[in-house]
Amino acid sequence: MWKWIGLKGWTVGIVATVLAAAAAVWLTGQPTVGEAQAPAQGFKAPRLRGTNNPDLTGLWQAMVTANWDVQDHSAEQAPAVRQVGVWLAQPPGQSIVEGGEIPYRKEALAKRQENFKNRLRVDHDNVNTVGDPEAKCFLPGVPRATYLPYPFQIIQSTDKIVIAYQFAGASRTVPIGKPTEPPVDFWMGWSNGRWDGDTLVVDVKGFNDMTWFDRAGNYHSDALHVVERYTPITPYHMMYEATIEDPKVFTRSWKMSFPLYRRMENNAQYLEFKCVDLAEEYVYGGLVKRSSQ
User: Fold this and answer.
1) pTM of the predicted model, to two decimals?
2) Could you give the C-alpha distances from 40 to 63, 208, 234, 238, 259, in angstroms and in order?
């Protein structure tokens, strides 16, 4: 085919023009981050029995690559490519950040770059502050728990919602009604929920500063404030939106959004991924080697 095109030189220009035009039409029709948030025409989510609120109960999962990097990223080889080949390679992915860029303060951006450089480093004297907390099976925080590559379960009642994440046995209880203040700082923050029409709004404060947004080293301080919005748009999809605010790290608030998909397999169920014992050699193996010397 390519030989034929080469012989017909004038054909190359026509083919290129047609392909470019087709690509432009296709791209124009694709929703950008934040555009696909409206419910399907005529769709009304099923109601929770005894209420006028949508019933979000179910097993949900994100289909994005944001856990590697919430911004645009290319494919990268695994850190130990000679041992694992392509098994742990980073897949390419598109940004879930509206506008594409995270508005870091200048000094905070330098910290993000340092995080990336040391993402797989283990410091036994600073185990909570050096390296990606996911690698150590620490609780993932919010919003990262939502776009980890594992499903999570939503269980809803009239006055509270429980979100149980597969990774590390993480969970959150979201009371609906009068907001309460966080008594201490938490890995998963302190959540308060309310309904805005058919959208569940969860206000999350009370974070510690030890979770990251992704494996690329994007991070926050203990001043993090996240406002999540869960909006059912079809029987099988919800739009998820998180507004991020942290004046110690960012110059302004910023937003991420992406769809969540309901798991529809006949036997789909919540499974636990208790990974603490799987990470012990990674976190503490150096101490064993040190003591044996």
Assistant:
1) 0.85
2) 19, 38, 6, 11, 13
